[in-house]
Amino acid sequence: MTKGLPLFAALMLAGATAHAAEETYTIDPRHTFPSFEAAHMGISIWRGKFKKTSGSVTLDREARTGSLDIVIDAGSIDFGLDKMNEHAIAEDFFDVEKYPRALYKGDIRFTADTPSSVDGKLTLHGVTKPVPLTINSFKCIMHPMLKKEVCGADASGQFHRADFGITKYAEGELGEVKLAIQVEGIKN
User: Where are the alpha helices (DSSP H) in 65-182?
Assistant: First the structure.
């Protein structure tokens, strides 16, 4: 039995080392704003953002894996025009009384040592569908004031809102939505 102890100890140490590489970051709601653009009646492009988000990101840089879990307050939509915000949260569109949150969960993929994409699913308006994201930039620094590592990324993706049951004025390209997500996370 004592001959097996060194092997058991080595396996335990290897498991602890592999687990130690996983790092968790809490989404900073003051620096994370999913934004979007969509056609407005086919005559212009409207841009808006969601002002309230929360969630976490887990990264294992050694294994080149990670995960993302984001919660978006659908009622925090902001087009910069109160009438448009009221229209967007109403029953015809986001119906925030019935669906107060949008969720995004996914697995982070790496190219070499850098996160480059997310294979994820968006839950919006009670419907869950795949919406992949491209990570256009990713960087981590030691935050000078927080004295903790902070990572930031810019990601983008696209979906058709009719796929999520938001069908009013969503024929053809009018329903196309482009996402641009700025996100920062603070290491726990």
Answer: 82-89
Tell me the pLDDT band of 12, cut-offs 50, 70 and 90: very low
Predicted local confidence at residue 3, as pLDDT: 52
Instruction: Write down all domains in the chain, each with its CATH number in brackets.
Output: 22-187 (2.40.128.110)
Question: What is the structure's pLDDT at 174?
Answer: 85
Q: Can you spell out the DSSP letters for the chain?
A: -TTHHHHHHHHHHHHHHHHHTEEEEEE-TTS-EEEEEEEETTTEEEEEEES-EEEEEEEETTTTEEEEEEEEEGGGEE-S-HHHHHHHHSTTTT-TTT--EEEEEEEEEEETTEEEEEEEEEEETTEEEE--EEEEEEEEEE-TTT-SEEEEEEEEEEEEGGGGT--TT-SGGGGEEEEEEEEEEEE-
Range 54-64 average pLDDT:
96
How far apart, in whole angstroms, are the C-alpha atoms of residue 74 and residue 101?
Answer: 5
Question: pTM for this structure?
Answer: 0.85
Residues β-bridged to residue 71: 54, 103
pLDDT tens for residues 113-168? 999 999 999 999 999 999 999 999 999 999 999 999 999 999 999 999 999 999 98
Which residue type is seen at 118? V
